[in-house]
Structures are given as structure tokens and as C-alpha cells.
Amino acid sequence: MTPRLVLINRDYTRLWFGQAVSSIGDAVFSTTLVLWVATVLAKDETWAPMAVSGVLLATGAAVLFVGPLAGVFVDRWDKRRTMLRTEVVRGALVALLTAVSFLPMHALPIGVWLALVYATVLLLNASAQFFTPARFAVIADLVTGEADRARAAGIAQATGQTAWIIGPPLAAPLLFTAGLQWALLLNALSYAVSYVVIRSIGAGRPEAAPEQADSKKAGQPASLLGEFTAGLRFFRRSKFLVALIVLAVIGQFGTGALSTLNVFFATDNLQMPTHLYGYIGTAMGLGGITGALCAGRVVQWIGARRTTWAGLLVSGLLLVVYSRQTGLVGGVVMLFVFTVPLTMLNTAMAPLLLGAAPAEYRGRVVSVFYPVTQLASMLSAVLSGWLASSVLRDVGGSVAGMRFGPVDTIFAMSGLIVVLSGVYAWTALPRTETPEEPGAEPATAPSGPQPALPRGRAQ
To answer: Which of 145, 267, 325, 330 could serve as a FRET partner for 59 with CA atoms 20 to 30 Å apart?
Structure first.
């Protein structure tokens, strides 16, 4: 009998396969759209960078405006059906754009083409705001125990990193040899694969949300605003969740500068030729895969809480060390090493978040946590760019023989902020947490994550 690959359990393995295919499709799709807008629709135009930024703004708008309310509906609905429906919607959206892309370019004004791209990206990411918390809730049902949940989060992160190593190199040849429509069709088919795999998983039966049942007993119909407010109240009363989101926001403000300024640091401080800049992404991708695959074992050894604060401390110090690099090889190696503990702490936070959220609040917990951290990341990117181009633009000199400029100064400051978030995590994360019931008084004693009872599905 031929042995089959099983990751944690059979249902999780099936869902992992579907998401791996879908992630590669998403990476190809996103890269293709950016390339198409930049090199075809807006070719040689002065507004080309603005046109490309519109794709990113559409993504951010979906996360910030749809995400917070999506969790209320996810908590009401059956999680497996929610995932299936969102895959149908996303597949149909991409299929529609694929059909339109067969038209000649001159058939529609450029403004209409851009509007179609932005609308598709906005709706795809709006649908993802329902899929992600449903998948989060399903992980808690399908995978139990802190170490296994860390393994599941690590596998998901490694898969996502791998998809972004594989996908972009496929996008350019598909776009410029086969055409835009074939790259889009690949993504539509990836959603179809994900749909089939999710249907093959047996868990995730419909069940009434506890808060709805309580409302019916009281003779009061559940309202969207009431359930959303109840979710915010639960989040605010949980010392553990508040500590998690605060340290995540601080950490985002510390690392967000990399996404905006790393290209300038690489070409100026590391003296890296522009055509070699891709190695930066490769180093970080490989570091992410390494950290994600090691995270489960580390969490099993020292626990998710210790992994979180230790990962923040180590990655913050490594970011400071990276800011002092002046050579290409040293910079690339340090980025790889920096990404390992950073990914491990991100992976370790998943079981903490899963354990701190009871089943009836999981959708809303995710729909608060991720948009807030996304907003912190966006603000960090904007702030670092503003500092580098205005307040710190003329900063320069040397101290004890070490030269410094605006970008490396921002990176060093960012590293220190990450270290501070590690100190905060060490002192603020309670050792145990008992999720409060809706309507219960705030817990007076510190509390921490508990393994959820086995029930449902995966990431």
C-alpha cells in the first residue's frame, strides 16, 4: 500500500492542498495585474505609479471597510458553507474579468479597463474577508493543541511564502507569451480546485451561534450592530486579546519601514545593483519558509507565549544589526536570518489567538485583529516614507567610526521599537486565559489560551 502524505490530519491535508493551489493562483494573478497595468495600460504614462497604487488601495479598502463587519456574518453562518460560497464568488469574478480580457485593448477606454481591474480586486478581497475568518474558525475545530496549531500556522505561512516564490516568475512569461487571459484563467481554476477540496472535507456542520440563541430567548432579534458591538466588548474585556493586538500593532510599526524603504537601503547602503534586487525577496521568502517550518517544534519546546516575546526581541535586535550592514552578501544573509524569528513569532501568535477566542466570537475576533494590524502596517509604511523624505532627509554623519544616514537610522529605530514590543509581550501576555462568556463580567485574574474542543476545518 502506497503511503500518503498527511499533514497533522487528513482533512487538514486536503484543505492545505486546496489552499496551496489557490495561493499560487493568487500570486500569479496579483503579479500579472500589476505588470499589465504598469507595462500595458499605463505604459510610458506619467500616472503609471498612481495607476499601480490603485490596485493596492483597492486591497486595503476591502480589508479596512469590509473586514470588521464580515466577522459578524461569519459567526452567524456555517463556516464550511461560507468558504464554499466565497470560492464560487471569487472564481466567478475572475472568470468574468477573463472573459472581458479577450476583447481587444482598443475596445474599451483605459479608464474603463482600470475600473474593471480595481472593482475586481476590491470584490475579490472583500470576499476574502469572509473566507479568512471562516477558515480561522475551522482551524480551531480541525486542529487542537498548541503545538499542532502552531504547526498548522507554520505550514500555512510556508505555503504562502512558497507561492510567492513560485507565482511571480510564472506571471511574466504567461502575460507576455500566452496573454493576460490565460494568467487570469489559471487563478479562476485555482478557486475551482479549492472549492472541490473544501467540499471533500467532512466536518463543519451548521450550528446556531450561541449569541443568536440567547437573543431569541430574550425575545430580541439579533442585529448586525448589536453583534458587532458585542464582539468589540468581548475583545476589549479580554486582557489576552488586548495584549496580543497591542504588541502586534507595535511590531507592525517597527517592521513596516522595510516594505517602503528597503529598496533604497539595498541600492545605497548595500550597494546592490538594481537587477539583483530580486535576491532580497528570495532571501526573505526562504527565511519565512524556514521560520514557519521550525515554529511548530519551537512552540512544542518552549510554548507559544515564550516564542512570541522571544521572537520579537531577537528579530528586533537583528533588524538593528541589518541597519548597520554595508555589503551585499552580509545584507542578504542578515535579511534571511531576520525573517526566521519574525515568521516564528507570527506563527506562534496563531494558537494564542485561536485559544483566546471562543467559538461564537472567532469570526469577529479575526475581523478586529487583522484590519487593525493591516492599518498599523499601512500607517508605518506612510510614516517611514515621510520621515525619510522630509524630517530625516538630511540626517548623516558618523559615531564611533560608524556612518549613518536617514534610511539606516529609521531601520535602527524600527528595530528598537520591535525590541520594546518584545519586552511588552514578556510582561503583558498573561500565562493563562479563560475566554469570557458574552455578557459576563470582565475577568479579574489574568487568563490565557485553552485548546478548543475538536470539531471542524482548517487553514
So the answer is: 267
Average confidence score pLDDT of the chain: 78
Q: What's the 3-state SS for 132-168? A: HHHHHHHHHHHCCCHHHHHHHHHHHHHHHHHHHHHHH
Q: Is the pLDDT of residue 265 over 80?
A: yes
The residue type found at 143 is V
Q: Which residues contact 176 (CB under 8 A, 6 or more apart)?
A: none
The reported pLDDT for the residue numbered 459 is 33
Q: pLDDT higher for 165 or 214?
A: 165
d(CA 432, CA 356): 9
Compute the distance between CA of residue 422 and CA of residue 250 in angstroms, rounded to an integer.
9
With 50 as the cut, is the pLDDT of residue 450 above it?
no
| Angle ∠(44,48,52) on CA atoms, nearest 5 | 140
Say what angle helices 67-76 and 362-386 make with each other, to 10 degrees: 170
457 burial class (0-12, 13-18, 19+ CB within 10 angstroms)? buried
CA separation for the pair 346, 352 (Å, rounded): 10
Q: What is the pairing mode between strands 402-404 and 397-399?
A: antiparallel
More confident residue, 237 or 215: 237
pTM over 0.85: no
Q: Determine the 3-state secondary structure of 439 from DSSP.
A: coil
Phi/psi region, residue 271 (left: phi>0; alpha: psi -120 to 50; beta: rest), is: left
Rg (CA), the chain: 23
Q: Are 378 and 60 a contacting pair, CB within 8 Å? A: yes
Contact 374, 231 (CB under 8 A): no
Beta bridge partners of 402: 399
147 contacts: CB under 8 Å, gap ≥ 6: 296, 299, 300
pLDDT of residue 202: 65
